[in-house]
Amino acid sequence: MAALSLGAEGIVMGTALMATEECPIHPNFKRALLEAEVSSTCLLLMSVKAPIRVFVNKPATEVLDMEVRCEPLEKMLPKMRGELGRQALETGELDAGIWACGQIAGLVKKIMPVRDFFQSVMEEAESIRRQWGIVTQPEADSEPVKVSGA
Ligand SMILES: Cc1cc2nc3c(=O)[nH]c(=O)nc-3n(C[C@H](O)[C@H](O)[C@H](O)COP(=O)(O)O)c2cc1C
């Protein structure tokens, strides 16, 4: 939102899209996102200078503990297998694997259709730009951005 408000033409978005109706993950994960707070994520693998932000759950806490104990990477990696995370997202078992999650999770308040989600993001960014006195000037040769189905 901040990037769009400042005039960025695009942003990378992951976590918030998991909380859309169309996202094919188990409803348990969508509920977890609704209940999440900003403190519900943590950084793993800081110890090897390859940090990834994940949802705080049982395996994530175990890996964090291993890092504190300076255990070797080879002992941590089996707990971090992407396959486990994927299975968790499918079965709905929140502690079955480690899953990537941004701090934006703390701001997820509603599961909505992806179309409405993008519309609200763009409207909010535009409203902030208006408050700041920034007027969006469409480029002469560009088509207005349309959300599919609108
Ligand atoms: C389901 C999911 C899977 C992800 N997988 C990867 C990945 O394989 N590699 C990676 O570098 N980042 C991965 N990420 C982290 C994204 O790069 C990160 O979420 C992105 O910067 C967008 O931030 P946001 O999730 O706060 O919107 C993943 C994020 C999510 C939500």
Task: Describe the protein in words.
There is one protein chain. The chain is mostly helical and 150 residues long. The protein has a single domain, classed as TIM Barrel (Alpha-Beta Barrel). It is 40% helix and 5% strand. The protein has a two-stranded antiparallel sheet. A hairpin with a 7-residue loop joins strand 1 and strand 2. The chain is globular. The protein binds flavin mononucleotide. Flavin mononucleotide binds next to helix 2.
The geometry reads as globular
Cofactors and ligands present? Answer: flavin mononucleotide
Using the CA coordinates, give the radius of gyration. Answer: 19 Å
* Portion in strands: 5-15%
The total of helices stands at 7
Largest sheet: 2 strands, antiparallel
Structural class: mainly alpha
- As residue ranges, the low-confidence spans are none
CATH architecture label: Alpha-Beta Barrel
Helix content range: 40-55%
Q: Mean of the pLDDT scores?
A: 90
**Total domain modules:** 1
Number of β-strand runs? 2
Q: CATH superfamily, called what?
A: Aldolase class I
For the biggest β-sheet, the strand order reads: 1-2
The CATH topology is what? TIM Barrel
H and E order? HHHEEHHHH
State the CATH class. Alpha Beta
Span of the ends, CA to CA: 22 Å
